[in-house]
Amino acid sequence: MKRGDDDLRIRPGRSRDGGTPGSKAKSFVAKVMRAASRAGHGGRRFSSVSVRQSSFGRGRAATARAALRSPSRRVLIKTRVARHRGSHFRAAPLSTHLTYLQRDGTDRDGRPGQLFDRASDHADGRAFAERCEEDRHHFRFIVSPEDAAQMGDLREFTRDLMAQAEADLATRLDWVAVTHHNTDNPHIHLLVRGRDQDGADLVISRDYISRGLRGQAERLVSLELGPRSDQEVSVTLRREVSAERWTRLDRTLRDYADDSGGVIDLRPGGHAHGDKDLHDLLVGRAQHLQRLGITEQAGPAQWTIAPDAETTLRALGERGDIIKTMHRALDRQGQSRGVADFAIHGEGSPNVVGRLVDRGLQDELTGTGYVVIDGIDGRTHHVRLPSIEATGDAKIGAIVEVRPFTGADNQQRLTLSVRSDFNLAEQVSATGATWLDRHLVGRDPPPVAITGFGAEVRQALDQRTDTLAAVGLANRRLQGAVFARDLIETLRQSELANASGHLASETGLPYRPSEPGNQVAGLYRQRVNLASGRFAMIDNGLGFELVPWKPALDQHLGRQVTGVMLPGGGVDWSMGRKRGLGIG
User: Given a cut of 50, is residue 421 above it in pLDDT?
Assistant: First the structure.
């Protein structure tokens, strides 16, 4: 999605090695493309500039040039048909998707996002998800008017657009939407049920999705704001000259190359002849792309353009958007980090341990997720995850770890594990066995940097040692600290005793500790988050037990579960008469 052009941009530094102009920039872009490839971007390998021949006929450049100067208001619409079952099913539950759309959304006044529909500003997302549950599919649209910030009410615009769509498709549509004003470009997330007014599967032609709906949206924006003035058009195009993303100027340059054997000719009498302002803009853009290694000068005011220019620039644009997301996330936590300390990972992320700073939808159409982690290695990491559900439910500030694992299909994936629901300050004074304690007594703890979050962890480890020393569980010495034998188990049992006492007072049930080899059987009542970890409260009818929790248990909340305590402290669960869930 297009972002503002005057925010943070990634810019290559000045060349100092005496090499060819732009060599540093080419190296920078090549690094970005390698990172983009690891993040799952397709496209051809980034290489030296080469000429491609057009297979579309002449005239594309003239069409593109006219479109640049068009006074029409522009609207970008992205679409996805989300299937609920079958081989193409990939999406998280619709209710989960709606929850995150509202969480990530804000209205014009900065208040949390609120679903709306044709009749109400407070639509019921749960009811909409239930209506869609047995459907084959639903539609997801992101509607982004280029001039959305100037529009009066995006909700009324959405209602007008959907009324027009109903007229075009000759059926009443069941839909909900939410506006997002928390990015540089306000936009609307629109979800349409996959059934028509008669209950049949709603099928919308590709042509209407790609052209018809967009045309109606642009007409409505033009009715509200009027056509763009020449000044507005010029300002928009000037911003594109130095943008690190794919722009309309780039499309025009590529079309010029396609129309003339691969060479962009911006000499007098060549392309853009007769429009000096546009000529100057295109020359400026070609020169900027040359510094990035995307165009190459072929003669005076002549350039060739890399065949994968669009892939490269879209990857640069996405990287810029991610960096903005990371800065905003850190700002909300009162933190500041330099871009040099940012690490952006795709599907091949290494182990990352640190503080959870943010989570959200990486792709708002497909439902893929991301987390931002302030790492103990002193870097801030952005990690892409396969779904929003994979980002977990730990609160911001918790200690988490992202690590790769190999699935049953031998494909490598990433998983996020919670190492502590307690933040550093809470761990320093906690009565239980914390992540800090495990780091202090671990045989081979991961290295902790002296910068960034690593510096905070080092300070917290020192403070935690003082806390333990104050209760006789550690002794300070010149060469370091000596900790009590069985420190982790001592702290764990102490915290379990305190927590079970509180639960016994709340529920009136007696606490019955479990021992290795004992059977665990009863109703799974709730998850209890302690400094020592997450525990499941199991009501066996005579009392309750607190046993190590695992994610699969949440599918059985309020239901009967059985298992056997293992010597290592885990549980071998048997749920619904099926053993071997791998919970241990």
Answer: yes
Our CA angle for 300, 305, 310, nearest 5°, is 145
Domain 489-579 has CATH 1.10.12: no
What DSSP designation does 332 have?
A: H
243: number of Cβ within 10 Å: 22
* DSSP E strand boundaries for 170-294: 175-180, 187-193, 264-265
The residues near 189 (Cβ < 8 Å, ≥ 6 apart) are: 101, 105, 140, 141, 142, 177, 178, 179, 180, 364
Based on its alpha-carbon atoms, the radius of gyration of the chain, rounded to whole angstroms, reads 29
Indicate if the pLDDT at residue 41 is higher than 70: no
Separation between Cα atoms, residue 60 and residue 255, nearest integer Å: 6
* pTM summary value: 0.81
Secondary structure (H, E, C), 188-200: EEEEEECECCCCC
CATH 2.40.50-classified regions of the chain? 489-579
- Residue range 365-376, pLDDT digits in tens: 888 899 999 999
Of the candidates 453, 362, 353, 447, the residue with the CA atom closest to the CA atom of residue 402: 353
- DSSP-derived 3-state class of residue 432: coil
CA dist., res. 544 & res. 439, Å (int): 31
Does the CA dihedral 387-389-331-457 come out positive or negative?
A: negative
Q: Is the pLDDT of residue 478 over 90?
A: no
Q: Is 205 exposed, middle or buried (0-12, 13-18, 19+ CB in 10 A)?
A: exposed
3-state SS class at 385: strand
Q: Residue 382: in which H helix or E strand, if any? A: strand 380-385
Angle at 56 between CA 50 and CA 60, to 5 degrees: 90
- Give every CB contact of residue 486 below 8 A, 6+ residues apart in sequence: none
CA distance linking residue 330 with residue 339, whole number of Å: 12
Selection from 410, 339, 427 nearest residue 379 by Cα? 339
d(CA 362, CA 358): 12
Identify the CATH assignment for 75-225 out of 3.40.1550, 3.30.930, 3.30.300, 1.10.3860. Answer: 3.30.930
Contact 404, 413 (CB under 8 A): yes
Burial annotation 451-478 (CB, 10 A radius, 16+ → b, else e): ebbbebbeebbebbbebbeeeebbeeee
**d(Cα 316, Cα 10) in Å, to the nearest integer?**
8
Residue 301 and residue 386: Cα distance in Å, rounded?
45
Structure tokens that stand for 391 in this block:
């980002």
Location of each CATH 3.30.930 domain in the chain = 75-225
pLDDT > 70: what percent of the chain?
A: 85
Q: What pLDDT is stored for residue 575 in this prediction?
A: 65
Question: Nearest to residue 449, comparing CAs of 379, 356, 345?
Answer: 379
Residues 6+ apart with CB under 8 A from 551: none
Angle at the Cα of 280 (from 31 to 26), degrees rounded to 5? 15
End-to-end CA distance of the chain: 43
Q: How far is CA 483 from the centre of its chain?
A: 41
Look at the block and give the residue holding tokens 């297979």: 55
